[in-house]
Amino acid sequence: MSECLRLADQIRRAFEGEAWHGDSLLEILAGVTAKTAAARPIANAHSIWELVLHIATWDSVVIRRAGGAAVEPNDDENFPPVKDTSEAAWQQAVDGAKMTHADLVKTVAAFPESRLGEQVPGKTESYHNFYYLFSGIAQHELYHAGQIALLKKAAASVVRSK
Q: CA-CA distance, 44 to 66, in Å (whole number)?
């Protein structure tokens, strides 16, 4: 198996499942309603919904960087505001994240292994190559999956206490 296929597999596992550490992002999101996704059970923290949109944004950023674009999301792109908190809008957000993630996995799997050591467009740090970018996006998904797991538990506690 090539290194790009291994990286793509790790990215997929972090998001979809069969991860060594435990539940993937989608496994954690199972059963999350729009109400729970929009809730703010922890003061000054992003909502589950905002984190899902943020994850999708960064999956898209990695795809675009792999295609040669020197892209950096602005504040509204980094954490897009949630304007419609309906169940349909929540499902659309999750479905959008799934589609973007599937594109990311395909992009990484097809990326030429000979380019993994190349500098990412727009980055000046010597370590910021495509290997770093692709392994970093898996770490990013897992970091936010942990936050979402805590928010999901906190939201459930708030609902039970009412």
A: 33
- Helices H / strands E in the chain, number of each: 7, 0
Q: Of the candidates 82, 46, 79, 37, which has an alpha carbon nearest to the alpha carbon of residue 61?
A: 79
Q: Which residues of the chain have pLDDT under 70?
A: 158-162
The DSSP result for 1-15, as a single string, is --HHHHHHHHHHHHH
For residue 162, what pLDDT is reported?
A: 53
pLDDT at 60: 98
- C-alpha distances (whole Å) from 160 to each of 40, 71, 88, 154, 157 are 15, 43, 24, 10, 5
Closest CA to 57 of 38, 78, 75: 78
Residue 92: per-residue pLDDT: 98
Cα–Cα distance between 72 and 82 in angstroms, integer? 21
